[in-house]
Amino acid sequence: MALSSSFAPVPPPPRRRRGRRPAAPVLTSLTAGAVAAAALVAVGPTATSAAPTAAGDGAEPEGRVSHKVSVAGLASGARFRGFIVKYRAGSAPAGGDLNAAQAGLGAHDGVHLSAAAPVALGHVVVRPDPAPTDAQHAERLMHTIADHPDVEFVEPNLVLPAPGLPDRSTAVGPNDPRFPEQWSLQGPPREPAGVNATAAWAWGARGKGVVVAVVDTGRTAHPDLDSRYVKGFDFITDDLMSRDGDGWDDDPADEGDWTVEDECGPDVPGGASTWHGTHVAGTVAAVADDGYGVAGVAPQARIQPVRVLGACGGTIADVTNGIAWAAGLPVPGAPANPTPAKVINLSLGGREDCPRALNSALHESYLRGAIAVIAAGNSNGPADEHTPANCTAPKIVVAALDREGNRAAYSNHGWPVDVAAPGGETRPTRENGVLSTVNTGQRTPAEPGWAYYQGTSMATPHVAGLAALLLGQGLSPYLVKWAIQNTARVLPGVCDAESRSECGAGMIDAGAAVGIVANLVSDAKRVVPLPALPR
After folding, report:
1. Which of 25, 60, 223, 242 is the most interior residue, by most CB within 10 Å?
2. Same structural domain for residues 156 and 175?
3. Catalytic residue among 137, 457, 462, 509
4. Where is this region: Disordered (predicted)?
């Protein structure tokens, strides 16, 4: 849902030839999605040629090093908000000193460059004023910044698209317990495409105490979730996106991501608030056995809401900070995370190359023992054209299935997809979507409720919840992906007419995964007596 349009299938991009798996993720640069027009920059295509051109025509001046500048997104006209600059470790800007960063910027090419905000892992957001006039102008500015000896690389601060807009008729108020409607948590033979969570619970697995960060639109009050939340943070920098007007703070409340026509760009329609983060959180860890509402895959896990998406989407810098903070990494300007997450749910993304700052955050989070679970995207195309799914850092990438176990019509597929999980399809039958927690407000928060959504955004938290179940059973975080893939079931339906491997190892089976871990842990604890010594 937070990827392009999670609530309805979209026309597929041109199909590519099979069997040409790239050595590293490569994607075609396409428009990143809806953005706030007043706060963002869109530039036109850059003409490229193998022949040398004059320096005044956008060519890289002699002596400059191209590997320090990434132009991902510029050629396609993707919208961005300034640049992300990576500084050399040990330099003052790398430690979050904006004054030191500013000293190396100043004005260039008629544009004032300002160090606007720190980003985790030695990065800084640099804002140009006025905005670049075209892609060549933006590239020249990035090369100018990269000339500083303390700068390791510069890239556009791209904007990921906003969550898709649901049919608000699917939102309902409180009524009787809804668990029987959660087909995605059941298992075969009743529900062939369910994740078999009930079998996992029979092993005693509930994910107790495991913190799952939902890096998304924030939290709303909901009886199915209130007791599951731990302290989170709001990393949305832009006031227009955040709607709360107070920048970074320790209140990750979802203020609503509703928009009006043209707010996110010319000819972009408006829409109601999605409460996307609340829906994702409910699938992970909604309270079970309380006689109310729905249940989550890991009903005793804890949810850490990290707010990075608002009206019209979110920037790479904000998402990078959210991932790093969730894993317990230091973020300049933010307090230390008192309860670092062991699982990071990323039901978000856009069709771009993987930004280096984002990949760095994912890699460092993995080294901290945090497992990133990432949506494959909703373009019915190659998953390697979608970021952060196409980042090279360790992760689990999730495709979506419909209720019959076929790859959902909207789901991306192929490398780097690792597994598939229920994402649902609400058309023509809304009950075939994934039921979870939402708020019923059209714009600002109102009453708690539930709704059926569809998307790889909905598939991903099923896998994040399973990861929490496995960690709660004592499995090492570095073995979670192995356990999930090696217990996956063959799809009951069809993934791709040409290859089953387009959906990774298959569909997840929570009961089988928890069962194999229970046996592994039991074997590890078993005391084997020494043989008697000969007399």
Report:
1. 242
2. no
3. 457
4. 1-24, 421-441
Query: 95 and 219: one domain?
Result: no
- Its domain, for residue 361, covers 168-521
Q: How many CB atoms lie within 10 A of CB 290?
A: 13
Strand partners, 387: 350
Closest CA relative to residue 250, chosen from 127, 339, 342, 149: 339
Catalytic entry in 216, 238, 353, 509: 216
> Which pair of structure tokens corresponds to residue 92?
């003052």
Long-range contacts of residues 35-38, Cβ cutoff 8 Å, at least 24 apart? 35/79, 35/159, 35/161, 35/264, 35/265, 35/312, 35/313, 36/238, 36/240, 36/241, 36/263, 36/264, 36/311, 36/312, 37/262, 37/263, 37/264, 37/265, 37/266, 38/240
Say if residue 189 is preceded by a cis peptide, omega within 30 of 0. yes
Examine the domain organization and report whether 305 and 354 are in the same domain: yes
Among the candidates 130, 160, 190, a domain finishes at 160
pLDDT recorded at residue 534: 54
Is 279 an active-site residue?
A: no
Same domain, 361 and 300: yes
Q: Which residues contact 427 (CB under 8 A, 6 or more apart)?
A: 8, 9
* Of the residues 126, 160, 194, the one at which a domain ends: 160
Task: Assign 245 a pLDDT band (cuts: 50, 70, 90).
Answer: confident
Give catalytic status of residue 457 as yes or no: yes
51: confidence class by pLDDT, cuts 50, 70, 90: very low
pLDDT digits 0-9 by tens, 350-399? 999 999 999 999 999 999 999 999 999 999 999 999 999 999 999 999 99
Same domain, 322 and 178: yes
The backbone region for 462, taken as left when phi is positive above 0, alpha when psi lies in -120 to 50, beta otherwise, is alpha
| 56 falls within a domain | no
**Which is the catalytic residue, given 123, 276, 413, 462?**
276
Q: What is the 8-class DSSP label of residue 4? A: T
Q: Rounded to an integer, what distance in angstroms lies between the CA atom of residue 207 and that of residue 465? A: 8
My answer on whether 352 and 215 are in the same domain is yes
For residue 196, the domain's CATH number is: 3.40.50.200
| Per-residue DSSP letter, 298 | S
The answer as to whether 13 is a domain residue is no
* 9 lies in some domain: no
Same domain, 247 and 133: no
Task: Categorize the per-residue pLDDT at 75 as very low, low, confident or very high, splitting at 50, 70 and 90.
Answer: confident
Each residue's pLDDT tens digit, 96-108: 999 999 999 988 8
306 and 378 belong to one structural domain: yes
Asked if residue 57 is part of any domain, the answer here is no
